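Hello again, I could really use a second opinion on something today. Take your time with it, there's no hurry, and the full record follows here:

___
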Amino acid sequence: MNAVWHVLLCLAAYGATQGDAPPPQPIDAPVLVQFDSREIAKLGCDGAFDCICARAIDALELPENTDLRETTIARMLREQQGGDVDFSRWMLIILRLMPGEQDRLDDIVARLYYSPLVRYAEPDYDAFGWKSPGEPAVAARADEDALVPDDPLFPLQYYHRQIQTPRAWRITTGSQDVTVAVLDTGCNANIKDLQGRVLPGYDFVDDSPDSTDAAGHGTSIAALIAATGNNTAGIAGIDWHCQILPIKAAEGGVAVWVQAIDFAVRAGARVINISGRLALPSPSPLLDDAFARAVDAGVVIVVSAGNQKQSHLAWPASSPHVISVGATDDDRLWSDPVYNIGSNRGPGLDLVAPGRNIVSIGPDDKKTTGEGTSCSAALVSGACALMCAVNPALHPAQIRRILHETADKIGPPGSYKKGYSQTYGYGRLNVYKAVLKARNLDKKNR
Protein backbone atom coordinates (compact mmCIF):
# COMPACT_ATOMS: atom_id res chain seq x y z
CA MET A 1 0.00 0.00 0.00
CA ASN A 2 2.85 2.36 0.83
CA ALA A 3 4.38 1.62 -2.57
CA VAL A 4 1.08 2.53 -4.31
CA TRP A 5 0.90 5.84 -2.45
CA HIS A 6 4.51 6.56 -3.35
CA VAL A 7 3.78 6.08 -7.08
CA LEU A 8 0.67 8.27 -6.88
CA LEU A 9 2.57 11.03 -5.08
CA CYS A 10 5.33 10.90 -7.73
CA LEU A 11 2.78 11.14 -10.56
CA ALA A 12 1.08 14.06 -8.83
CA ALA A 13 4.40 15.85 -8.42
CA TYR A 14 5.26 15.24 -12.10
CA GLY A 15 1.92 16.64 -13.20
CA ALA A 16 2.38 19.73 -11.02
CA THR A 17 5.84 20.26 -12.48
CA GLN A 18 4.52 20.00 -16.03
CA GLY A 19 1.68 22.36 -15.28
CA ASP A 20 4.06 24.96 -13.85
CA ALA A 21 6.35 24.93 -16.92
CA PRO A 22 6.08 28.22 -18.85
CA PRO A 23 4.78 27.94 -22.42
CA PRO A 24 7.34 28.26 -25.25
CA GLN A 25 8.04 31.86 -26.22
CA PRO A 26 8.59 33.22 -29.74
CA ILE A 27 12.16 33.80 -30.87
CA ASP A 28 13.22 36.98 -32.68
CA ALA A 29 14.72 35.70 -35.92
CA PRO A 30 16.56 38.50 -37.78
CA VAL A 31 17.03 38.33 -41.53
CA LEU A 32 19.49 40.68 -43.22
CA VAL A 33 17.93 42.06 -46.37
CA GLN A 34 18.57 44.59 -49.10
CA PHE A 35 15.69 45.91 -51.15
CA ASP A 36 15.54 46.97 -54.79
CA SER A 37 15.19 50.76 -54.63
CA ARG A 38 13.15 50.88 -57.84
CA GLU A 39 10.61 48.39 -56.53
CA ILE A 40 10.42 50.20 -53.19
CA ALA A 41 9.59 53.42 -55.06
CA LYS A 42 6.66 51.61 -56.71
CA LEU A 43 5.04 51.12 -53.29
CA GLY A 44 4.00 54.77 -53.53
CA CYS A 45 4.84 55.98 -50.03
CA ASP A 46 6.94 59.04 -50.98
CA GLY A 47 9.73 57.89 -48.67
CA ALA A 48 7.54 57.53 -45.56
CA PHE A 49 9.26 54.84 -43.49
CA ASP A 50 6.21 53.40 -41.69
CA CYS A 51 4.22 53.28 -44.91
CA ILE A 52 7.00 51.50 -46.79
CA CYS A 53 7.47 48.98 -43.97
CA ALA A 54 3.76 48.16 -43.83
CA ARG A 55 3.39 47.79 -47.58
CA ALA A 56 6.60 45.81 -47.98
CA ILE A 57 5.60 43.37 -45.22
CA ASP A 58 2.21 42.99 -46.88
CA ALA A 59 3.67 42.52 -50.37
CA LEU A 60 6.10 39.89 -49.08
CA GLU A 61 3.27 38.05 -47.27
CA LEU A 62 5.19 38.09 -43.99
CA PRO A 63 3.55 37.31 -40.62
CA GLU A 64 1.59 40.15 -39.04
CA ASN A 65 3.97 40.49 -36.06
CA THR A 66 7.00 41.07 -38.34
CA ASP A 67 9.14 44.19 -37.82
CA LEU A 68 11.27 45.98 -40.40
CA ARG A 69 14.17 48.01 -39.03
CA GLU A 70 17.28 49.87 -40.11
CA THR A 71 20.64 48.35 -39.25
CA THR A 72 22.91 50.50 -37.11
CA ILE A 73 25.28 51.28 -39.99
CA ALA A 74 22.38 52.25 -42.28
CA ARG A 75 21.04 54.60 -39.61
CA MET A 76 24.49 56.13 -39.05
CA LEU A 77 24.93 56.79 -42.76
CA ARG A 78 21.45 58.33 -43.03
CA GLU A 79 22.11 60.64 -40.09
CA GLN A 80 25.47 61.59 -41.59
CA GLN A 81 24.19 62.23 -45.11
CA GLY A 82 20.61 63.30 -44.40
CA GLY A 83 17.52 62.25 -46.31
CA ASP A 84 15.05 59.40 -45.99
CA VAL A 85 15.79 55.81 -45.04
CA ASP A 86 17.67 54.07 -47.85
CA PHE A 87 16.08 50.64 -48.19
CA SER A 88 18.82 49.51 -50.60
CA ARG A 89 21.22 49.49 -47.64
CA TRP A 90 21.21 46.73 -45.06
CA MET A 91 17.84 46.37 -43.32
CA LEU A 92 16.63 43.87 -40.75
CA ILE A 93 13.43 41.90 -41.02
CA ILE A 94 12.60 40.63 -37.54
CA LEU A 95 10.45 37.50 -37.69
CA ARG A 96 8.91 36.10 -34.50
CA LEU A 97 8.99 32.35 -34.74
CA MET A 98 8.50 29.54 -32.28
CA PRO A 99 11.40 27.26 -31.30
CA GLY A 100 11.82 24.53 -33.88
CA GLU A 101 10.33 26.54 -36.76
CA GLN A 102 13.52 26.66 -38.80
CA ASP A 103 11.76 25.10 -41.79
CA ARG A 104 9.30 27.97 -41.73
CA LEU A 105 12.18 30.44 -41.67
CA ASP A 106 13.74 28.78 -44.72
CA ASP A 107 10.44 29.02 -46.59
CA ILE A 108 10.19 32.73 -45.78
CA VAL A 109 13.76 33.37 -46.97
CA ALA A 110 12.94 31.55 -50.21
CA ARG A 111 9.94 33.84 -50.71
CA LEU A 112 12.13 36.88 -50.07
CA TYR A 113 14.73 35.68 -52.57
CA TYR A 114 12.24 35.37 -55.40
CA SER A 115 10.44 38.63 -54.69
CA PRO A 116 11.27 41.51 -57.06
CA LEU A 117 11.36 43.76 -53.99
CA VAL A 118 14.44 42.00 -52.60
CA ARG A 119 17.99 41.97 -53.93
CA TYR A 120 19.58 39.96 -51.14
CA ALA A 121 18.35 38.07 -48.07
CA GLU A 122 20.27 36.06 -45.51
CA PRO A 123 19.03 34.79 -42.14
CA ASP A 124 21.32 35.49 -39.20
CA TYR A 125 21.13 31.96 -37.81
CA ASP A 126 23.77 32.53 -35.15
CA ALA A 127 21.78 35.39 -33.63
CA PHE A 128 19.10 33.02 -32.40
CA GLY A 129 20.97 29.77 -31.91
CA TRP A 130 19.93 27.83 -35.02
CA LYS A 131 22.52 26.28 -37.25
CA SER A 132 22.83 27.28 -40.88
CA PRO A 133 21.13 24.59 -42.96
CA GLY A 134 23.33 22.08 -44.73
CA GLU A 135 21.25 22.33 -47.86
CA PRO A 136 19.81 25.33 -49.70
CA ALA A 137 16.85 27.13 -48.23
CA VAL A 138 15.59 27.79 -51.73
CA ALA A 139 14.40 24.89 -53.83
CA ALA A 140 14.58 25.06 -57.61
CA ARG A 141 11.45 26.74 -58.86
CA ALA A 142 9.52 25.56 -61.87
CA ASP A 143 10.81 28.01 -64.48
CA GLU A 144 11.34 26.77 -67.99
CA ASP A 145 13.53 29.77 -68.82
CA ALA A 146 15.93 29.43 -65.88
CA LEU A 147 18.16 26.72 -64.44
CA VAL A 148 18.33 27.19 -60.67
CA PRO A 149 21.18 25.19 -59.09
CA ASP A 150 21.16 23.49 -55.68
CA ASP A 151 24.32 25.14 -54.29
CA PRO A 152 23.76 26.18 -50.64
CA LEU A 153 24.93 29.78 -51.15
CA PHE A 154 23.15 30.34 -54.45
CA PRO A 155 20.19 32.07 -52.74
CA LEU A 156 22.65 34.75 -51.61
CA GLN A 157 24.00 35.31 -55.12
CA TYR A 158 21.44 37.95 -56.10
CA TYR A 159 23.65 39.10 -58.95
CA HIS A 160 22.89 35.99 -61.01
CA ARG A 161 19.29 37.11 -61.22
CA GLN A 162 20.33 40.65 -62.18
CA ILE A 163 22.55 39.55 -65.05
CA GLN A 164 20.25 36.64 -66.04
CA THR A 165 22.81 33.86 -65.65
CA PRO A 166 20.18 31.19 -64.82
CA ARG A 167 18.59 31.79 -68.24
CA ALA A 168 22.01 31.54 -69.91
CA TRP A 169 22.57 28.18 -68.19
CA ARG A 170 19.64 26.80 -70.17
CA ILE A 171 21.82 27.36 -73.24
CA THR A 172 25.18 26.29 -71.80
CA THR A 173 26.90 25.79 -68.48
CA GLY A 174 30.31 26.03 -70.11
CA SER A 175 32.99 23.85 -71.66
CA GLN A 176 36.18 22.24 -70.34
CA ASP A 177 37.81 23.26 -73.62
CA VAL A 178 37.83 26.89 -72.47
CA THR A 179 40.63 28.06 -70.15
CA VAL A 180 40.41 31.26 -68.11
CA ALA A 181 43.71 32.63 -66.79
CA VAL A 182 43.30 34.44 -63.48
CA LEU A 183 46.21 36.86 -62.99
CA ASP A 184 45.96 37.60 -59.30
CA THR A 185 47.21 36.20 -55.98
CA GLY A 186 47.01 32.56 -57.08
CA CYS A 187 44.29 29.99 -56.48
CA ASN A 188 43.75 27.09 -54.09
CA ALA A 189 42.91 24.04 -56.16
CA ASN A 190 41.53 21.99 -53.28
CA ILE A 191 38.30 23.91 -52.61
CA LYS A 192 35.27 21.80 -53.47
CA ASP A 193 33.88 24.16 -56.10
CA LEU A 194 37.08 24.09 -58.18
CA GLN A 195 38.33 20.54 -57.66
CA GLY A 196 39.72 18.96 -60.82
CA ARG A 197 39.53 22.21 -62.79
CA VAL A 198 42.60 24.18 -61.70
CA LEU A 199 45.56 23.76 -64.04
CA PRO A 200 49.22 23.99 -62.98
CA GLY A 201 50.05 27.69 -62.88
CA TYR A 202 53.03 29.83 -61.99
CA ASP A 203 54.12 32.48 -59.52
CA PHE A 204 55.96 35.20 -61.46
CA VAL A 205 56.37 37.37 -58.38
CA ASP A 206 58.59 34.83 -56.59
CA ASP A 207 59.57 32.87 -59.72
CA SER A 208 58.07 29.63 -58.47
CA PRO A 209 55.77 26.94 -59.89
CA ASP A 210 53.72 27.17 -56.68
CA SER A 211 50.62 29.24 -57.47
CA THR A 212 48.84 28.52 -54.16
CA ASP A 213 46.83 31.47 -52.89
CA ALA A 214 47.89 32.81 -49.49
CA ALA A 215 45.99 36.11 -49.75
CA GLY A 216 42.56 34.81 -50.76
CA HIS A 217 41.70 37.33 -53.45
CA GLY A 218 42.59 35.15 -56.43
CA THR A 219 40.65 32.13 -55.17
CA SER A 220 37.46 34.14 -54.62
CA ILE A 221 37.79 35.67 -58.10
CA ALA A 222 38.34 32.24 -59.67
CA ALA A 223 35.27 30.89 -57.86
CA LEU A 224 33.09 33.73 -59.17
CA ILE A 225 34.19 32.80 -62.67
CA ALA A 226 34.16 29.04 -62.46
CA ALA A 227 32.72 27.49 -59.28
CA THR A 228 30.98 24.27 -60.21
CA GLY A 229 27.24 24.74 -60.07
CA ASN A 230 24.54 22.28 -59.05
CA ASN A 231 26.97 20.24 -56.94
CA THR A 232 25.33 20.90 -53.52
CA ALA A 233 28.46 22.80 -52.43
CA GLY A 234 29.38 26.44 -52.06
CA ILE A 235 28.31 28.83 -54.78
CA ALA A 236 27.52 28.69 -58.47
CA GLY A 237 30.10 30.35 -60.70
CA ILE A 238 29.25 31.73 -64.13
CA ASP A 239 30.94 28.87 -66.04
CA TRP A 240 30.67 25.42 -64.44
CA HIS A 241 33.15 23.56 -66.65
CA CYS A 242 35.95 25.87 -67.82
CA GLN A 243 39.53 25.36 -66.65
CA ILE A 244 41.25 27.89 -64.38
CA LEU A 245 44.89 28.79 -64.98
CA PRO A 246 46.18 30.51 -61.79
CA ILE A 247 49.03 32.96 -62.30
CA LYS A 248 50.45 34.95 -59.41
CA ALA A 249 51.23 38.46 -60.59
CA ALA A 250 49.60 40.71 -58.00
CA GLU A 251 51.98 43.25 -56.44
CA GLY A 252 54.46 42.59 -59.24
CA GLY A 253 56.00 45.12 -61.59
CA VAL A 254 55.51 45.53 -65.32
CA ALA A 255 57.99 42.74 -66.13
CA VAL A 256 55.98 40.33 -63.96
CA TRP A 257 52.71 41.19 -65.69
CA VAL A 258 54.22 40.93 -69.19
CA GLN A 259 55.54 37.45 -68.39
CA ALA A 260 52.21 36.45 -66.85
CA ILE A 261 50.27 37.49 -69.95
CA ASP A 262 52.67 35.74 -72.34
CA PHE A 263 52.54 32.62 -70.16
CA ALA A 264 48.73 32.63 -70.25
CA VAL A 265 48.72 32.88 -74.04
CA ARG A 266 51.24 30.06 -74.46
CA ALA A 267 49.25 27.90 -72.02
CA GLY A 268 46.17 28.18 -74.23
CA ALA A 269 44.05 30.62 -72.23
CA ARG A 270 40.99 31.92 -74.06
CA VAL A 271 40.18 34.56 -71.45
CA ILE A 272 42.51 36.54 -69.16
CA ASN A 273 41.02 38.10 -66.03
CA ILE A 274 42.83 40.95 -64.27
CA SER A 275 40.85 41.97 -61.20
CA GLY A 276 42.72 44.86 -59.65
CA ARG A 277 46.23 44.84 -58.18
CA LEU A 278 47.44 46.53 -61.38
CA ALA A 279 47.01 50.29 -61.81
CA LEU A 280 49.68 52.43 -63.44
CA PRO A 281 49.79 56.24 -63.60
CA SER A 282 50.57 56.12 -67.31
CA PRO A 283 50.48 53.51 -70.09
CA SER A 284 53.30 51.00 -70.33
CA PRO A 285 54.25 50.36 -73.98
CA LEU A 286 55.82 47.04 -72.99
CA LEU A 287 52.65 45.82 -71.26
CA ASP A 288 50.41 47.21 -73.99
CA ASP A 289 52.39 45.24 -76.55
CA ALA A 290 51.75 42.11 -74.47
CA PHE A 291 48.03 42.88 -74.49
CA ALA A 292 48.12 43.33 -78.27
CA ARG A 293 49.91 40.01 -78.75
CA ALA A 294 47.32 38.26 -76.62
CA VAL A 295 44.40 39.76 -78.52
CA ASP A 296 46.04 38.85 -81.86
CA ALA A 297 46.23 35.28 -80.55
CA GLY A 298 42.47 35.31 -79.92
CA VAL A 299 42.56 35.93 -76.17
CA VAL A 300 39.97 38.15 -74.48
CA ILE A 301 41.39 40.36 -71.71
CA VAL A 302 39.01 41.60 -69.00
CA VAL A 303 40.26 44.27 -66.58
CA SER A 304 38.57 45.84 -63.57
CA ALA A 305 38.07 49.60 -63.82
CA GLY A 306 39.42 50.24 -60.31
CA ASN A 307 37.92 51.38 -57.02
CA GLN A 308 39.41 54.85 -56.62
CA LYS A 309 36.08 56.61 -57.31
CA GLN A 310 37.67 58.57 -60.13
CA SER A 311 36.08 60.09 -63.24
CA HIS A 312 38.76 58.53 -65.40
CA LEU A 313 40.07 55.00 -65.82
CA ALA A 314 43.49 54.06 -64.51
CA TRP A 315 45.72 52.21 -66.93
CA PRO A 316 45.49 49.38 -68.07
CA ALA A 317 41.68 49.62 -67.81
CA SER A 318 41.92 52.43 -70.37
CA SER A 319 43.97 50.33 -72.81
CA PRO A 320 42.15 49.82 -76.13
CA HIS A 321 43.11 46.14 -76.07
CA VAL A 322 41.14 45.22 -72.93
CA ILE A 323 37.49 45.07 -71.87
CA SER A 324 37.17 47.41 -68.87
CA VAL A 325 34.47 46.73 -66.29
CA GLY A 326 32.94 49.03 -63.68
CA ALA A 327 30.83 48.01 -60.68
CA THR A 328 27.17 48.65 -59.89
CA ASP A 329 24.95 48.66 -56.84
CA ASP A 330 21.41 48.13 -58.08
CA ASP A 331 20.98 50.47 -61.04
CA ARG A 332 23.63 52.95 -59.98
CA LEU A 333 27.39 53.02 -59.88
CA TRP A 334 28.83 51.26 -56.81
CA SER A 335 30.39 53.34 -54.07
CA ASP A 336 31.10 52.92 -50.36
CA PRO A 337 30.79 56.20 -48.43
CA VAL A 338 32.27 54.66 -45.27
CA TYR A 339 35.64 54.03 -46.93
CA ASN A 340 35.25 56.71 -49.61
CA ILE A 341 35.81 54.27 -52.44
CA GLY A 342 33.78 53.47 -55.50
CA SER A 343 33.88 52.33 -59.10
CA ASN A 344 35.96 54.37 -61.50
CA ARG A 345 34.21 55.66 -64.59
CA GLY A 346 35.13 57.67 -67.66
CA PRO A 347 35.90 57.43 -71.38
CA GLY A 348 36.82 53.92 -72.46
CA LEU A 349 34.67 52.08 -69.92
CA ASP A 350 33.11 49.11 -71.74
CA LEU A 351 30.37 47.97 -69.39
CA VAL A 352 29.42 47.44 -65.76
CA ALA A 353 28.42 44.45 -63.64
CA PRO A 354 27.22 43.92 -60.05
CA GLY A 355 29.88 44.81 -57.50
CA ARG A 356 28.24 45.04 -54.08
CA ASN A 357 27.87 42.19 -51.58
CA ILE A 358 29.22 39.61 -54.00
CA VAL A 359 29.24 36.20 -52.31
CA SER A 360 32.05 33.83 -53.26
CA ILE A 361 34.34 31.16 -51.76
CA GLY A 362 37.76 31.76 -50.22
CA PRO A 363 40.87 29.56 -50.06
CA ASP A 364 39.64 27.97 -46.81
CA ASP A 365 36.48 26.78 -48.60
CA LYS A 366 34.33 29.24 -46.63
CA LYS A 367 31.98 31.98 -47.76
CA THR A 368 33.43 35.37 -48.59
CA THR A 369 31.66 38.60 -49.41
CA GLY A 370 33.46 41.06 -51.65
CA GLU A 371 32.82 44.44 -53.21
CA GLY A 372 34.18 46.44 -56.09
CA THR A 373 35.26 46.16 -59.67
CA SER A 374 37.38 43.06 -59.02
CA CYS A 375 34.17 41.08 -58.59
CA SER A 376 32.51 42.78 -61.55
CA ALA A 377 35.37 41.89 -63.89
CA ALA A 378 35.20 38.26 -62.79
CA LEU A 379 31.51 38.07 -63.72
CA VAL A 380 32.28 39.44 -67.19
CA SER A 381 35.17 36.98 -67.62
CA GLY A 382 32.80 34.13 -66.78
CA ALA A 383 30.34 35.42 -69.37
CA CYS A 384 33.13 35.54 -71.97
CA ALA A 385 33.95 31.90 -71.18
CA LEU A 386 30.33 30.89 -71.77
CA MET A 387 30.31 32.79 -75.06
CA CYS A 388 33.44 30.94 -76.16
CA ALA A 389 31.78 27.66 -75.18
CA VAL A 390 28.86 28.18 -77.56
CA ASN A 391 30.99 29.74 -80.30
CA PRO A 392 34.69 28.81 -80.13
CA ALA A 393 35.44 30.82 -83.30
CA LEU A 394 34.62 34.19 -81.71
CA HIS A 395 37.38 36.80 -81.94
CA PRO A 396 37.97 39.20 -79.01
CA ALA A 397 36.58 42.10 -81.06
CA GLN A 398 33.36 40.16 -81.65
CA ILE A 399 33.05 39.32 -77.96
CA ARG A 400 33.49 42.98 -77.04
CA ARG A 401 30.86 44.04 -79.56
CA ILE A 402 28.36 41.43 -78.34
CA LEU A 403 28.85 42.55 -74.73
CA HIS A 404 28.19 46.14 -75.82
CA GLU A 405 25.11 45.30 -77.86
CA THR A 406 23.48 43.06 -75.26
CA ALA A 407 24.14 45.13 -72.13
CA ASP A 408 21.11 46.45 -70.24
CA LYS A 409 20.78 50.22 -70.12
CA ILE A 410 20.59 51.21 -66.45
CA GLY A 411 20.81 54.49 -64.60
CA PRO A 412 18.66 57.64 -64.68
CA PRO A 413 17.15 59.01 -67.91
CA GLY A 414 19.66 60.87 -70.03
CA SER A 415 22.63 58.75 -68.90
CA TYR A 416 23.42 57.61 -72.44
CA LYS A 417 24.36 59.53 -75.56
CA LYS A 418 24.22 57.48 -78.74
CA GLY A 419 24.02 54.34 -76.62
CA TYR A 420 27.10 55.09 -74.50
CA SER A 421 27.61 56.42 -70.99
CA GLN A 422 30.90 57.35 -69.34
CA THR A 423 29.34 56.14 -66.07
CA TYR A 424 27.93 52.78 -67.22
CA GLY A 425 29.72 52.15 -70.52
CA TYR A 426 27.27 50.40 -72.81
CA GLY A 427 25.25 49.21 -69.83
CA ARG A 428 25.14 46.34 -67.33
CA LEU A 429 26.19 42.83 -68.28
CA ASN A 430 23.37 40.54 -69.45
CA VAL A 431 24.84 37.03 -69.63
CA TYR A 432 21.77 35.46 -71.23
CA LYS A 433 21.56 37.96 -74.08
CA ALA A 434 25.31 37.78 -74.68
CA VAL A 435 25.41 33.96 -74.82
CA LEU A 436 22.30 33.82 -76.99
CA LYS A 437 23.76 36.30 -79.47
CA ALA A 438 27.10 34.47 -79.51
CA ARG A 439 25.35 31.19 -80.26
CA ASN A 440 23.16 32.68 -82.96
CA LEU A 441 26.16 34.32 -84.57
CA ASP A 442 27.74 30.88 -84.86
CA LYS A 443 24.60 29.55 -86.56
CA LYS A 444 24.66 32.38 -89.09
CA ASN A 445 28.27 31.61 -89.96
CA ARG A 446 27.60 27.92 -90.66
Notes: The radius of gyration is 25 Å. Confidence is low (pLDDT under 50) at residues 7-17, 130-143. The chain has 13 helices and 16 strands. The chain has two domains: 27-134, 163-411+418-444.
